[in-house]
Amino acid sequence: MKKVVMKPKLAVGASGHLSDLVLGQKAKVIALHADDPARRRRLLDMGITSGVTVTIKRIAPLGDPVGIGLRGYELLLRRADMANIDIEVVA
Amino acid sequence: MRIALAGNQNSGKTTLFNLLCGTNQKIGNWPGVTIERKAGMWLDADIEVLDLPGVYSLSPYSADEEITRSALFNEDIDVIVNIVDATSIERSLYLTTQLMELDIPVVVVLNMSDSLAKKGLKVDHRQLEKSLGVFVFPISAKRNVGLDELKNAIVNNEFVKRKPQPVFPAAIEDEIKTLEASLESRHRRFVSVKLLENDHLLTYLKPSGLTTAVARLADKYGLDAVEMFANERYRLIEAITKKAIIAIPMRHSLSEKLDRVFLHKIFALPIFAVIMFLTYFVSVGLIGQLTADGITYLIGKLNAVIATSFSAWGASPWAISLVIDGVLGGATSLLVFVPQLIVLFLIIGLLETTGYIARISFFLDRVFHALGLSGRSLIPFIVGSGCSVPAIMSSRSIEHDSERNLTILLTPFIPCSAKLPIIALFAGFFFPRYAGLVSFGMYFLAIAVIVLSAFLLKRRFFKQKPGTFISELPDYHLPHPVYLLRDVFDKTWEFIKRAGSIIILSSVMIWLLASFSWRFEYGVDPSRSMLAGIGSLISWLFYPMLGGNLSWGAAVAALQGLIAKENVVASMAVISGLASEGTDGAAIFAAGGLFGFFTPVTALAFIVFNLFSAPCVASIAAMRREFKTKRLMLQAIVFQTSLAWVLASLIGGLGTLIAQGFGL
Fold first, then answer.
1. B468 touching A, CB under 8 A?
2. Is the omega angle on the peptide bond into residue B481 within 30 degrees of 0, that is, cis?
């Protein structure tokens, strides 16, 4: 089987949105922009605060949602919500 | 004394509750199994225990989480037992820092299985205790370790000795304390924090100095209060866990391996289809074929023995008929299906407790999203193959109104266990070799109907912006065999009890109406009975789907399904039992009998109508509760019944015409 190598859109040190990352990439959360207050609060409650390190752990077979590793557990998020999270690529 | 169990979703609260109270509340492996406040008594102790829906914070996101906050806030609770899942300790302690703000002492229970300890997770609970300022207790709910110590500590009021440590930096703590001093409510610290966060539930309280305090904090931190508080809580937790956690293991490696199969890019969907196929194929097809004949034979024997002994005692013919056809006929016609239901309940139980459902809802979220539903809608759909009532209630954890309402409307389309006898009876007689295939086909049709309806109704229901899917992914768990078997037993026993109560009652009513004419003559031909008169009033509705047959019997059976879906089979057995012996398919569909007109095509049409038309009254009541408006409920019932009628009439009418055209 041919191994598919996903080319990262963002290099280490670059900043962008969480939704720009590919499988296995690690990043630091910079800011959260969700416009809906309840949704924003939920993301904060689940541990997406500035400075936290997140890893893309899995992507659903249909491309969305995405499993994100943070604070010792795995959080599932839709890409639409990930686009509201600013990050800086760590690895 | 009263304690409340509080913790994150899927942290093992209900497992602990069952262990403490000796109950068998539903345990599942997906976030949000418990959707109601449940109370029990701690075995051998005078302590009332409340099990509350899991929450991640005290700012509710969905209706079930609202229940937890209001219970903790308003009820008289002596101690909060906060279950902290040792594997996700950071996120769990976030809730702990909020619980500590209430005027109720908190005891932290560190739930840690031995397998985790073996894997190398080491938590210094003394250190944790010191930094939080609350009592910390390591237990293993699964192995019943540490519970006696917990009980002693609670009974002896040991928790009072601790004083919660401050969570926030001095500048914030000062603002909170100033605000606290100006309040007179309960839980002043909690209320102060919420006020600073501008919580919408507390806006009626307007203490002086709030606006200036909010402004001062915004000035100092450059963030809004919600984010500032979240940041500070997590900052403290990071510092605490750095000291208290000695080693943390890698994620469950078995879960990773299983996910490589069950969440495989290409095979995930086929695997899900095969699992659902096997569920129905094994329960209806295989188990049905193996057991139905034997049970029917035994019931026939039993009825014969009762009939002969009754006539030996000199009972009159109507009394014998009442017992055999009315009381026993309806109820025993359902007992045939018990083995099939046991298998169905077992498979559903396995799907629910292993963590598979949580994965499939993750995997199918994109598809559901396109239909105006959420990945979480899958949970009601799976639970619904057991019973629609808990399934409709489980939709409560969907926070988005449109997605939730659409899910509630669509859930009754999934064939529940009470509808299984209808499929099994018709398919078993008309398609004896393919009964399993037909019932899986019906499940597949149900999915098609759901997709079609969602597509039709999406615009009617969708008035909000798209929802979210924010959820944690639990590890796979090996189901606890004792709880699983007890769950299967409880559900099966519930089915038998219903057959012995409400179904017998309905059957006796059917017997009465079918045995007497309008002049109260007994023993008339069923077609001259009162029931025939009533059925004839609505039998025209069923004319097209029955391929051009007017059948008062089928009309009455379908109507009885509104009381309970099991009644469809029971009523047919009672009505036909008056004319013939036995209650199995062969007796019910005997040529020349009341139901002798059924053909394979009209049988399918009749199944379809009963599967998709208005559900039983219990489900309708559940829909009413979860919709919160009568209007939506009525609209849903009209939609379901119209759709079922059109679909059944198309199958029965067109199918019969085609069959006649081919000279079949």
1. yes
2. no
Dihedral of CA B558/B562/B568/B572: which sign? Answer: negative
Q: Which amino acid is at B474?
A: P
Please say if the pLDDT value at position B354 is more than 80: yes
Please calculate the CA angle A75-B259-B277 and round it to the nearest 5 degrees. 115
Confidence (pLDDT) at A1: 42
A62 touches chain B (CB under 8 A): yes
Whole-number Å distance between alpha carbons of B219 and B227: 14
The residue whose two tokens read 């959080």 is A75
Q: Which of B271, B366, B399 to mutate to test the interface with A (most CBs of A within 10 A)?
A: B366
Please write the tens of the pLDDT for every residue from B415-439. 988 898 899 899 989 998 888 889 8
Question: Do residues B322 and B570 touch, judged by C-beta distance below 8 A?
Answer: no
Confidence band, pLDDT 50/70/90 cuts, at residue B542: very high
Amino acid at B269: L
Report the CATH superfamily, name and number, of domain A17-89: Ferrous iron transport protein A (FeoA) (2.30.30.90)
Percent of chain B scored above 90 by pLDDT? Answer: 25
Q: Is A13 on the interface with B (CB under 8 A)?
A: no
For residue B17, give both structure tokens.
């509750």
If DSSP codes are grouped into helix, strand and coil, which group holds residue B317? helix
Q: Which of residues 82-121 of B touch A (CB under 8 A)?
A: 87-91, 94
C-alpha B402/C-alpha B475 separation (Å) is 30
Q: Which two tokens stand for residue B657?
A: 């015409």
Tokens of B166: 């401050």
Residue B191 to residue B186: CA distance in whole angstroms = 8
Query: Is-cis flag, bond preceding A65, omega within 30?
Result: yes
Chain A residues with CB under 8 Å of B473 CB are 67, 73-76
Candidate from A38, A62, A67 with C-beta closest to B473: A67
B10: closest CA of chain A, how far (Å): 12
Complete domains list, chain B, with CATH: 2-161 (3.40.50.300), 170-247 (1.10.287.1770), 269-661 (no CATH)
Cα B30 from Cα B379, distance rounded (Å):
9
To the nearest 10 degrees (0 to 180), the angle between helices B288-312 and B420-430 is 100
Among the listed residues B123, B156, B157, the one whose alpha carbon sits nearest the alpha carbon of residue B140: B123
pTM above 0.95, yes or no: no
The CA-CA-CA angle for residues A49, A50, A55, to 5°, reads 80
pLDDT of residue B591: 76
Interface test with B, best of A58, A62, A75 (most B CBs within 10 A): A62
Task: Name which of A46, A80, A81 is nearest B91 (Cβ-Cβ).
Answer: A46
Does the CB of B472 have a partner CB in chain A at under 8 Å? yes
Q: Hey, what's the torsion of the CAs at B81, B82, B87, B90, to 10 degrees?
A: -150
Nearest-neighbour CA in chain B from A47: distance (Å): 6
Token pair recorded at residue B266: 């290409």
Interchain contact, A37 vs B226, CB within 8 Å: yes
Give the residue from B440, B469, B566 showing the smallest Cα distance to B510: B566
The residues facing A27 across adjacent strands are: A54, A89
Chain A: closest CA distance from residue B471 (Å): 5
Over the Cα atoms of chain B, what is R_g?
A: 29
DSSP conformational letter for B475: P
Q: Which ipTM value was assigned to this complex?
A: 0.92
Would an 8 Å CB–CB cutoff place B257 in contact with chain A? no
pLDDT beyond 60 at A5: no
Stretch 28-57 of chain A: residues touching chain B, C-beta under 8 Å? 32, 36-47, 49-52
Residue A17 phi, psi dihedral angles, 5° rounding: -105, 155
| Pick from B231, B268, B466: CB nearest A49 | B231
Q: What angle do CA B271, A80, B382 make, to 5 degrees?
A: 35
